[in-house]
Fold this sequence. Notes:
Bound molecules: zinc ion
Radius of gyration: 21 Å
Mean pLDDT: 92
Number of strands: 12
Helix content: 25-40%
Oligomer: single chain
Number of helices: 10
Amino acid sequence: MSNEAALAIDLGGTELRAALVDRDGKILAFAAVPTQAQAGPEVVIGQIEALAATIHAEAPALAILGVGVGAPGPLDPLAGIAVGPPTLAGWLDVPLADILERRLGLPVRLENDANAAALGEWRFGAGHGARSLVFVTVSTGIGGGVVVDGRILHARRGLAAEIGHMTITNEGERCICGVVGCFEAIASGTALGRRANAATSAFDGSTLRRLSANGEVTGRHVVDAARLQDDLALALLEEEARWLGVGFTNLLHLYSPDVLVVGGGIANGLDLMAPAIEATIRQRAMRAYRDVPVVQAQLGRHAGLIGAASLVLFADGTARLPVDGPSRYPGHEDGH
Ligand SMILES: [Zn+2]
C-alpha cells in the first residue's frame, strides 16, 4: 500500500540520521542531528526518540510498519544488541532493539551499518536484480557486506564479512585493529592520503598540496588531482587500484557475487581506477571469477538508511531471537 513506510535510523558516530522510506526505496522525509557520541547510550537513545517524533510529524498520514536501525558494529543483529561500537562511548551490550521497541511502540530490526548499506544497494541501487552481491565501502576505513542468494550473510554472532580486516600483505602501517597487513590499513582512503602526504610536502607547489591548501592531503584530493591529469596523483591512484584489485580478487573467490559494488568517498574515483583494478583481477583471479562487474554504488550516503528500512519493509525470514539473561544496559536491569 502506498501510504506505508518504514522509519529508518542511521546511528553514526558523528551524525544521527532518520528517514521515512517507502516500498520503492524512496525517502519521504529526512532529518539529522549530530550524535552526542560521548554522552552515553541513554542520551543517544533519547536523541533517536526525538528524531523519530520529528520525522513522523512531517508525514502524519503514513502508516509506519516498523523501525530499521543501522548502527556501527560489532553488533548482534539477531538479538538486536549493540555489542560495543568503538565510535560510541559507553555502549556495551546495549539491547537497542528491545529498548526502542518499548519506547516507540513499533517492531525494531537492528543491522550492522555496512550490511544495511549492502542491503540498500542490493534492493534499490547498483546491485538491483542480482542474486548475490558484495558491497565494499572505501573511505576512512574499509567496510562492507555480503548478500548471498537474497539474504545478508550473518554467520556466527553476525560478524561475517569484516572485509577491511582481511590480511592481504605483511607490510605497511599498523591497522586500527592492531595488526599489520589488513586491507583497510593499506587500501582505505586514509591509507591513500597517507601515501600522498609522504610523497609531497607543504608549499612544494604540487597539485596535491595546492588542492589541500598546503594542509593534510586526503584520498579525495588524490582523486581530484588525478582528474586534472596530475602525474603523481595518477600514480598514487594506480597503486591504490592495485591494492583494491587484490582485495576484490579475494572477495570474488570467497563469495562469487554477481556484482561487486564499491561505495564510499574513494568510489568517486572508480572510473579512473577501473583499468588497474580490472588488470589486477585478470592477473590474480581464476578464470571463472574474472568477468564479475565492479561498479560504483548508486545510493550514496543514503544506502544505509534505505537498507535499514528494507529490513522492515521486506521480510527476509530472519526473526529476532529472544535476549538471554539479564540486560547489562544501565537502568534496565529490572527486566520486563
Ligand atoms: Zn585490521
